[in-house]
Fold:
Amino acid sequence: MTDRARLGILGGGQLARMLSVAASRVGVATHVYSDQAAAPARHVASRFTHGDYLDPAALDRFAESVDVVTYEFENLPVEAVRQLERQRPVRPGSVPLSVCQDRLVEKRWLNDRGLPTVTWAAVDGQEDLAPAVATVGLPAVLKTRRMGYDGKGQVRIESPEEADAAWAAIGGQAAVLEKYVDLAYELSVIVARDGGGEVVSFDPGMNEHSEGILRVTRVPADAPAAIVDAARQAAETIVGAFDYVGVMGIEYFVTAGGELLVNEMAPRVHNSGHWSQNGCVVDQFEQHVRAVMGLPLGSGRRYADVVMTNLIGSDVLSLDKWLREPNAAVHLYGKAEVRAGRKMGHVNVVAPLAGNRQ
Ligand code: ADP
Ligand code: MG
Structure:
């Protein structure tokens, strides 16, 4: 079929893999471009290119081969996206990417729009660290401005003497110092916006992390309606402010004092939205494809309660157990090598909506 709409995806990880599967359901062919030869999306994408994100000629050929471009992770060179934007619609574009890939720019952007975050201070060089500690207070967490994910590039500081070691541990890179807040729980909202400005959000999920990595997301979130509604409302404000097209994942902290803070924004589908694959008719992946390809959005309505558990590292060895579980849907990413801390897949365990249980 040559007349299928073609979506180019920068990045070839599990998110590109699940986007490709979803795209195929609505008649969209995907062309995945990744700098990893063994990318998880390779075996399900309609077409795959192994290339460098800073190879203008290869990116040019990629743009030529598709109708619309999207990306599945934020640690991409923004120049690559700007180049593609000159040739094809890139949704979401380079602006949300450049804001979300830098923790300092991201926090300023949020605070400038009246959205509260943890107390933070910029740390451009080692000499900024002591004043930042004085401003923010301890305990704190020093995070690299760029390239962090799954808790990487972050070090906690409990006492002033630990500051220099923390600076060394993050490799002496430009950073942000954040107050380490006492968390009651963490929430996230997966929200979609289409080119006409229609916004649909999924029910907020409640997230459990350990060692900086998401382990479990539960829907519905066991949180007061006022907090859940405020999180959803903030997400809708954020996508509107970006004039965003596509799906975005927004992570929140709820402090022990009941304050809702925005932790971070991901300009893409998000791990904490994987529950939607088995809880909704149109999941976050298809929703993203629909938004960026100009197709009508799904409703976002949830038809089941879901507990999503990530299979991290050797967790995947318990696959047989999950396959025998009657209410569990297994989603594997096709990664050959099991490594500690590596996301290998996830499982969605579904139950009838609480209100419908006998
Ligand atoms: P990543 O980009 O790696 O997801 P996050 O900034 O979201 O980084 O941090 C990962 C997790 O670490 C958070 O979801 C939370 O559980 C914990 N964490 C990070 N920053 C703070 C903080 N300032 N206070 C309390 N917990 C934090
Ligand atoms: Mg995070």
